């Protein structure tokens, strides 16, 4: 599988004093759509399967947003 070299990846970072969600946004060049993965438990956005599926979609010129709905405290 060829990795799409023309994509932008933006990590979404938690700000202090806020309950922001964490996520990763990947925007390939000439993106034709956006697929959102919203994770409430399990491996979440860091899981190998989720990363693989997102990469396949990126290689087909689809943007992806992988987000974890729970904070680290809520996961415990």
Write the layout of secondary structure elements.
Layout: E1 7-12, E2 22-28, E3 34-39, H1 48-59, E4 63-68, H2 72-75
Parallel strand pairs: 3-4
Antiparallel strand pairs: 1-2, 2-4
Question: How would you sum up this structure, described in words?
Answer:
- There is one protein chain.
- With 76 residues, this protein is an alpha+beta fold.
- It has one domain.
- Helix content is 21%, strand content 33%.
- It has 2 helices and 4 strands; from the N terminus they run βββαβα.
- It has a 4-stranded mixed β-sheet with strand order 1-2-4-3, with helices on one face.
- The protein is globular.
- The protein starts with 6 loop residues before the first strand and ends with a helix.
In short:
This protein is of the alpha+beta class and 76 residues long.
Q: Give the N-to-C terminal Cα separation.
A: 36 Å
Low confidence ranges: none
Main sheet specs: 4 strands, mixed
User: How much helix, percentage-wise, in residues?
Assistant: 10-25%
Number of domains: 1
For this entry, what is the oligomeric state of its chains?
Answer: single chain
Instruction: Give the overall average pLDDT.
Output: 79
Number of strands: 4
Number of H- or I-type helical stretches = 2
Rg: 13 Å
Strand content of the residues, in percent? 25-35%
- Using the alpha-carbon principal axes, give the shape: globular
Order of strands across the main sheet: 1-2-4-3
| Category by helix and strand content | alpha+beta
What series of H and E elements makes up the topology? EEEHEH
